[in-house]
Amino acid sequence: MSKIKETSTNFANKQALADECPEAYAANIIGGQWALVICSWLFNGKLRFGELRKLLPNITERMLTLQLRKLEEYKIVKRTVYAEVPPRVEYELTAIGYELKPIIKQLEEWGAKHRELSGES
Amino acid sequence: MSKIKETSTNFANKQALADECPEAYAANIIGGQWALVICSWLFNGKLRFGELRKLLPNITERMLTLQLRKLEEYKIVKRTVYAEVPPRVEYELTAIGYELKPIIKQLEEWGAKHRELSGES
DNA sequence: TCATTTACTTACATTTTTTATAGTACCTTA
DNA sequence: TAAGGTACTATAAAAAATGTAAGTAAATGA
């Protein structure tokens, strides 16, 4: 787990910003490299660790683990472990996680539009 | 300007993700530590460099410059330099930049709600 | 006994982002 | 002549994020 240095200026700045600005608070949570994309896939329903890995071809197991752990910590996803061998672990969005759907959808639309504009100029 | 190493795996991953997922594309653009907050302030109208610096008490001049340059590069903000001494530079959102407003507003609402949930449990 | 499967974990290396500190140019005003 | 204000730039360092490679446990089937 990537430990954050709680004495760093960066940590203090993030805290202060998040305290004042809910959008910065939100960005800290969903801001990793893969978090939004993981959520996007989970909007369609539960997925196993291995399934997610296949859907995100370039992600390493380490990064997938880290991102899922972070999302779990913030209660965006729920992790269910089945006592089987080989192990089976399923990930699904929580209620608050699912509420990201319209936001991500809008972000997608904005991104597509922005790319179009940039491509033309 | 922070140069990106175009031979790194990280660069390739970001590219590939952004190509396929508009939300990842968007996240790359507005994903910096201060970008969203800068945009938030600019929704209310033009601001000078020094005004932004005062509104973001902990930001360094370097970071503010970097973030503004990035936002300018992606046509989110427009930079206007007045040929005066001492210099005056104004920043304002472009049309596509302004279209982030509803998204950021929703993010704020989501963030506030998430924080509330986390505080209670 | 041995390989197989799955979801990790660990140690380490590299890359990217953020912070720190000290400058600079320019004209105006004192 | 000197100080002051504005929006920066240069350089270095610290911190954070991401990537690489290898290893682990535990039951099952061969």
From TrEMBL, chains A, B:
Please provide the record's keywords in A-Z order.
DNA-binding, Transcription, Transcription regulation
Domain (HTH hxlR-type): residue spans on this chain: 21-119
Q: Which domain of life is it from?
A: Bacteria
Q: Which InterPro entries match?
A: HTH_HxlR (IPR002577), WH-like_DNA-bd_sf (IPR036388), WH_DNA-bd_sf (IPR036390)
What the entry lists under SUPFAM superfamilies is as follows:
Winged helix' DNA-binding domain
- What is this protein identified as? Transcriptional regulator
What is the organism of origin for this protein?
Answer: Sphingobacterium pedocola
